[in-house]
């Protein structure tokens, strides 16, 4: 693992997700760019001190040289480190599982794209919300035509943790780097959570955003990146939509919600209650589909661990990405391609996300003019 | 009553709302522009045949001449009739309670404005959703600063009844006139329900929309007006927002929902569950405020009839407009001004709604360019 | 109207319910047993002073003698007055609409039964929750076999308004008479709300309670009647169930909830959100049926006024009893029987309720022994 | 692990729960009483074939003799095997984590009690629902007096998976052993899920059931144990309650719900939405407490892994029992007592559950007579 030392939020999530299905063991890390913190964090996790590295390139070099070196690495650093770190491992044939967004800048994205294309190793991007069983089900339902032709996509991702200037208190490392354009990229809320919303909408509908008009704003005085974004979407095949993301909407903890409407039916899903999926066939009563419930699909059941009514959550959804990565890695070891590889977000999703962020920023700077992706 | 004969939806609603608190008796009507239907509809309602008129101007003239003539008239016709019908009564000093939107066109709106300004009679516009107790409470909470400075306004009004081409079946009069620009005005969903959403957002926040960027669309082939609208809002005092209205979103019956976020808290309300109001003070647990419940305000209690847990609904909210109109009329009879008159939607709300519709259509024709209201 | 003067809660509800569909005009009343209050209350309601009576028997006599005397009377007094008041009108051929429970005591119930049987006039008991559209739908679904054979009935009615000793403050007339065995009867919560729960369960399932085991309790020191009841039910046809009613459950405003499970499916309904009915056919996804929605039945639509998504509430449900009473009275005037008369609660429901209360009290006094009804 | 081979449900749950926080490695097993299945199941889990045992006593003996033998064992067999299996390990000083209920019979319970008392090893019983963060919070709130004195406890556990005679199809191993009194014990639903409900109610309130009156029933023809139970409860300190459990309630997947009401407030929680806890202080608006949200307690945060809005579920709650067991084992290794040991269900909870099952069966056989525990 690269990144994920003390004070980090997402590193611990990756570790649990990797461990949950028993597919991965954590054996080495460059857990912090501060050597002492890297060492302490490694010790706290029970790592062999010899395999606690201060720099990711040292780690890549050393691990590649070991006979028992790592097969895969998780990169969970701030965004600006993704590209160089991933490249260091990819060029040595080590598979990479990387947090989103792809990188902090378009230039870094291009660099990383080159590194990925030049390597035989796999690159997986943890757009983890695609791992939820009911999201898998929603995707198959849309693909099967249960909604008819998709017309409308309403997606939103609302939080409230940046309602006040948390990054200016000196006590919130998360808030600091996520609002620092040098580390996070030019997008604030749009990069941190807007990309998840964009990715989820595309994953479920199978559509892509062709044009968008974005009104980004920073409500908190002194904030250096956007903390709220209102975006009009035009997708392919004539669909239209809206995307709202916000980090300043009090009462919203992690409110990622997706609604899709076609000419034959509608779907609604919310991340905070992920075991449910509403399906409204036009002209019939709404149905509440549940994970492993009576109306659950094969696609959902394939990534479920517990019976209906025994709720799975964020970590299980995240673990489904890791489990998919494990299947993909094992297949690659056999010289094969995992049958469900296309369900795993990777370079394409990452580039789409970067283009989305970039388009939003350009549109907003031009007063919400339409920008073609 | 003008309009509201057989096949009409909103006429029956007005009649119940007027009757619910015992303030009005229905004694005369021009219930249909078809004389026979006017007569039959009047008979079905038990009206004196002498007071069943075939034309609204006949009714205005005759009733004004009677010693026991009507004091107030409800106008519940298709939109293009609002202006001439209202004028006929206003110029004879008869108070007018008129369905929304104000008129079908901006020219008619100007005519009606003149008629209203020239008359001493009252003009009330039934933006009925402002009558819900928890909406009154939301308004007072925002005004009292419970949310701090308002930053974000997310409002939507989603229905599904026009998902298919109901207006082309010959069996749905409602769908026919509401999608006919001659009768409904140039706005489809935006005029029929978008104005309600716009009105509600402004009523609760006390803000006005300064600029908007609207992407209107007709998803149903052959439809002559918009059936879906995606709109970016810039309100005064720095607030921003989104408005979505749709008549083609399967699973949504009458989904008017409002969310308002300020720097100190958030509010959420949905019309289909109107007795509840979520209040999230930043940094504290969310509270579920209920009508006549522990946290209910004076403003809400003043327009409530039953104790908490005994749900009130659409008709009671609508009746609150009529009850307010009755208070206003009685005050006017005494030469006074009712203390709660400002809570009643009237000419100002009507004109704001017309400007909103007009701005949406102009923006959308110009590819969602910003239009200043 | 008999009863329903100032400070009364249910009188105002009856008046609105009677007026809502335009079937009844309030023209006379014995609104209070205190003459001055009777007069003042009548004046506040705009009654002719000559028709404001101090005593219900004066009213019955005088109204029966008038050529324009009342056709029907609503009795909304405390329970101990129901029997004599109803008898006074019934024996003069005036139809009676009476609040529940039937009477305060079993002896009074027997008296009233005699009076009802001796009269040609109608007797309607306002077990108003049977008037909700989705309850009508639930009843027809059970009768149609949608649930298969009914096995389990879980019904509850939870409130919190008597959590503290409100009857001892001197400021709550409602609490005073409803906890006074002389006026309310020997049942406290069981009589006031438990009967509603019992009635609703029987109305929907078509079953009757054969045996019960009741554990009544007064949690508030000094309270003279039960404020909580836990009851085991054995119904006919092998069904079993539970009934819980409480007035001391903080957070419950008016929580009447019914769940019915058969061998083919289940139904769930809650009074505070009355426009919804959950239907779970075994082995299929749950469906959310809505009033006037896609899955609404004729039985529900027949007692609905507004389209789906335009919520109806407590007053509309109550008004459905009055509207049914009006149809029954008009049919009686023609010498006919209204086709939906069996849906209206009357003597049978009232006696069943009294036997239920009596059985609960006897069972509880015998330490929750089984009592056969 | 003893039990948990192919076709088992709860074995896989235990394995994930044990692994989730990285505290346990699975290295040995007697996964099935069928040797071939034991071997195959072990292989599927990657166990060393030498440590795949056909019989639990072989396993206990062999592992106790190995220098790298297991420190703890999970027993996830049908109930009748719990006692002998646990004893085999306990007498060799190996810690036991055992599925509930304690045993199939009271005699077995006495045997197991002796074994536990004779051993220095720990015995943990996976009443896993006590591991949910919001349940921990509910317990601390009750203990802190936030509800005042507890008056009413309403607990229920409703499922529908045995609505039909699944045990008679030959295709459902779970249904077979869970309805077989030889393997499951005399209690059906009451033993399988009723004990969870009983345990949860006691865990949260700190109260014990003193008397109960139980009406057990088998609705499915030919079923050998109860599939539904209606129970009246009298708890200590004057509280009263109801417990309903059912496996034949269509539409209920895993509906464990607890409501507790005191003289100052109420709490409501449901297992299917475990990240929420409703708190209603009497006379104030209801508050929705969320895991790691603004109102979350230390007790809840101590067993949470992800931020608010990132839902945790059944596996995380279950894992909290394992994490607690790990802390207890480590403390024991240091000769200490883990500070949170009292939060872990063990022998006392197990015996209370057995007495509860036994009392229910005795009461029901005596026509729901009161039985003192």
UniProtKB/TrEMBL annotation, chains A, B, C, D:
Pfam families reported in the protein's UniProt record: GFO_IDH_MocA, GFO_IDH_MocA_C3
Occurrences of domain GFO/IDH/MocA-like oxidoreductase (ranges): 135-268
Gfo/Idh/MocA-like oxidoreductase N-terminal domain boundaries: 9-123
InterPro entries tied to this protein: Gfo/Idh/MocA-like_OxRdtase_N, Gfo/Idh/MocA_oxidoreduct, GFO_IDH_MocA-like_dom, NAD(P)-bd_dom_sf
Top-level taxon of the source organism: Bacteria
Protein name listed in UniProt: Gfo/Idh/MocA family oxidoreductase
């Amino acid at each position: 693992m690269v990144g994920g030392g003390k004070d980090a939020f997402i590193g611990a999530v990756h570790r649990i997700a990797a461990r949950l299905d028993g597919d991965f063991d954590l054996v080495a890390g460059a857990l912090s760019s501060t050597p002492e913190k890297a060492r302490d964090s490694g010790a706290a996790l029970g790592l062999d001190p010899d395999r606690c590295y201060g720099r990711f390139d040292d780690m890549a070099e050393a691990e590649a040289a070991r006979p028992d070196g790592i097969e895969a690495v998780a990169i969970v650093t701030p965004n600006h480190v993704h590209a160089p770190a991933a490249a260091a491992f990819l060029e040595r044939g080590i598979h990479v599982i990387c947090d989103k967004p792809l990188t902090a800048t378009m230039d870094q994205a291009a660099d990383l794209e080159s590194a990925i294309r030049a390597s035989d190793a796999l690159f997986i991007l943890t757009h983890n919300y695609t791992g939820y069983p009911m999201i898998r089900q929603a995707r198959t339902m849309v693909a099967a035509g249960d909604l008819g032709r998709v017309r409308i996509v309403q997606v939103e991702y609302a939080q409230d943790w940046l309602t006040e200037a948390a990054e200016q208190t000196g006590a919130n490392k998360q808030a600091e780097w996520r609002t620092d354009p040098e580390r996070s990229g030019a997008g604030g809320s749009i990069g941190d959570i807007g990309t998840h919303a964009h990715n989820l909408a595309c994953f479920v509908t199978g559509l892509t955003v062709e044009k968008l008009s974005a009104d980004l704003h920073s409500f908190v005085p002194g904030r250096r990146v956007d903390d709220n974004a209102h975006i009009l979407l035009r997708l392919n095949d004539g669909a239209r939509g809206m995307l709202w993301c916000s980090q300043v909407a009090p009462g919203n903890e992690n409110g990622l919600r997706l609604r899709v409407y076609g000419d034959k039916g509608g779907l609604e899903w919310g991340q905070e209650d992920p075991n449910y999926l509403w399906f409204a066939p036009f002209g019939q009563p709404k149905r509440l589909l549940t994970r492993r419930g009576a109306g659950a699909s094969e696609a959902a059941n394939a990534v479920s661990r517990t019976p209906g009514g025994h709720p799975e959550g964020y970590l299980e959804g995240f673990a489904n990405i890791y489990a998919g990565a494990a299947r993909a890695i094992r297949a690659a070891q056999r010289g094969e391609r995992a049958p469900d590889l296309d369900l795993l977000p990777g370079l394409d999703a990452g580039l789409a996300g970067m283009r989305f962020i970039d388009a939003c920023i350009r549109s907003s700077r031009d007063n919400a003019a339409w920008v073609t992706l």
